[in-house]
Design goal:
With 209 residues, the chain is α+β, with helices and mostly antiparallel strands. It contains 9 helices and 5 strands, in the order αββαβααααααββα. Helix 2 links the parallel strand 2 and strand 3. The chain starts with a helix and ends with a helix. About 8% of the residues have low confidence.
């Protein structure tokens, strides 16, 4: 899994180019906090679990894609014992389609299929990441997931979803994050594990406390 280290290192380096001056102010009440579940969070697993694994991620980020199957496996193994939270941190200065992807996931979430779109976006990252026609691509994904296409299109463009994605991005930057993926376990940032086994052991230790 050494390749993950290199991918993450590059992502963090490039993420450093993301400037605070480019971050707008979006008011979401209550505000987002690290490690604390928010009413607008997308949560998988047990929402009442004592262990909360939170990821700040970018759908266009290669490193995030590398961790996607690892996280999916962990949620499968520990789904009844942990809460997994996905938060948006699109690095728009280097990933121009990332924010649109985040909005597509939230629009799917309006129809109860956030996680289905989440998985699809990572699995097909190579298809849409550099596309100049993402509107059509995401519309096709909505059809593939049997969503109401008109509602999806309306929600995807809505101020509500734009503000939500922006609010999570602002929170990530103000929290001092500069790259993706960034993981927090019970509110404490952890160094990105190098393998599934390493990640599994970290969670087991947290559950044993």
């Amino acid at each position: 899994m050494k390749i993950i280290y290199w991918i993450v290192a590059i992502a963090v380096l490039l993420g450093g180019l993301y400037m605070l001056s480019n971050v707008g102010r979006v008011n979401i009440e209550p505000p987002f906090e690290k490690g604390v579940l928010h009413p607008l969070d997308n949560v998988k697993g047990n929402k009442d679990a004592k262990v909360v694994l939170m990821e700040y991620s970018d759908f266009q980020c290669p490193a995030c894609k590398s961790y996607y199957p690892i996280i999916r496996q962990l949620v499968t193994e520990f789904g009844g014992e942990i809460a997994f939270v996905y938060r948006h941190f699109p690095l728009t200065s280097i990933h121009p389609n990332a924010e649109f992807a985040a909005r597509a996931a939230e629009a799917a979430g309006k129809q109860g299929k956030f996680w289905e779109m989440h998985d699809l976006l990572f699995e097909k990252q190579g298809e849409w990441a550099s596309s100049n026609d993402i509107v059509k691509i995401f519309a096709d994904y909505a059809i593939l997931l049997t969503l109401d296409k008109e509602k999806f299109d309306t929600d995807w463009r809505s101020k509500e979803i734009k503000n939500l994605v922006s609010a999570q991005r602002v929170h990530a930057v103000k929290s001092g994050l500069s790259g993706t993926p960034s993981f927090f376990l019970n509110g404490e940032q952890i160094q990105n594990p190098a393998s599934l086994d390493e990640f599994r052991n970290i969670i087991k230790q947290a559950l044993a406390k």
